[in-house]
Amino acid sequence: MSQDGWRKSSRSQGENGNCVELRVTPWRKSSRSQGTANSDCVEARSAGTGFQVRDSKLGDDSPIFDLKTADFTALLQRADR
């Protein structure tokens, strides 16, 4: 299942498939990873009170790491974006 767009609970299957859906923020990849021979990098998206990061080459199979905003900011500074 794609991580972008709207997601519905797996419990909403069956006769009464109506339930609340959750909007999921799309993944974003650094503009520096475009157009190069090795364009795999870390993807990020906002999530609640922080951010999530994953490995772009693994896509939906990648583990997702939840970071607080301060930790994500420190990661960007350390990586010297």
Description:
With 81 residues, the protein is α+β, with helices and mostly antiparallel strands. It has 1 helix and 6 strands. It has a 4-stranded antiparallel beta sheet. Strand 4 (42-47) and strand 5 form a beta hairpin. The longest helix is centred in the C-terminal third of the chain and has 11 residues, at 69-79. The protein is elongated and about 50 Å long. The two termini are 30 Å apart. The mean pLDDT is 76. It comes from Glycomyces niveus.
By DSSP (H or I, 4+ residues per run), the number of helices equals 1
How many strand segments? 6
Q: Give the rounded overall mean pLDDT.
A: 76
Biggest sheet record: 4 strands, antiparallel
Give the structure's gist in a few sentences.
The chain has 81 residues and is α+β, with helices and mostly antiparallel strands. Helices cover 14% and strands 32% of the residues. The protein is elongated and about 50 Å long.
Give the topology.
Blueprint: E1 5-8, E2 21-24, E3 28-29, E4 42-47, E5 50-55, E6 65-68, H1 69-79
Antiparallel strand pairs: 1-2, 3-4, 4-5, 5-6
Region (Disordered): 1-46
Organism: Glycomyces niveus
Pfam family, one: DUF397
Give structural attributes.
single chain; 81 residues; alpha+beta; 4-stranded antiparallel β-sheet; 6 strands
